[in-house]
From TrEMBL:
The lineage of its organism: Bacteria, Bacillati, Actinomycetota, Actinomycetes, Propionibacteriales. This is GNAT family N-acetyltransferase. It comes from Propioniciclava tarda. GO terms for molecular function: acyltransferase activity, transferring groups other than amino-acyl groups. Residues 13-195 form the N-acetyltransferase domain. It holds the Pfam family Acetyltransf_7. The keyword Transferase applies. Gene3D superfamilies: 3.40.630.30. Keywords: Transferase.
Amino acid sequence: MDAVPLSPPSVAFTIAAVTAEDAEAYVRAHIEFLAHTYEPIAGAAFGDARRAEFDQRIAHLHDDIAETTSADAAGREPFRRHLIARDSRGDVMGVASAGLGAEEWEEPHLGERWFKASTDVVLSHLYTASHTHGTGLGQALLDAALPGRRPAYLWVYDENRRAVRFYERNGFVRDGLCSDSGESWGSRPMSRMHRL
């Protein structure tokens, strides 16, 4: 995927597919975006727990990048495609990931309550630096991750009202499956949303 220029008022970003060279910066930014978003909800230990996952997240991302490269070469859709948004200085301002298949934690965590989503496409994550909120970067990342308003599903913390409103504006609604986020994610209520 070639870099896509994005020029909201007074800001300039590019969005591109993540490469192996981007992996460390992507994971560091993703972890810090997670900490900034969820520490107020899940507590200060949340960020420390995510930072402790750095090496594991790097390894997982490298596996995803290799699979995406292989899928692209074979002309098939990859399991997960990761996108990185950078500002004009090259600093990471946003990250996103979407692809085919349920998240690996879903069925084991939810047990008998789990049911298959209405679509096989999942938006695994989308985060932007807080100072970019309102610039259109989040919308551009969503549109790049799910082009053409592609049907998809996602999970969102119920208390993350900004995210819930953002996804509702983009046609996502709750599909009836709710859970807690699990102990390592603060055991907070979350809901699955989908767009058909």
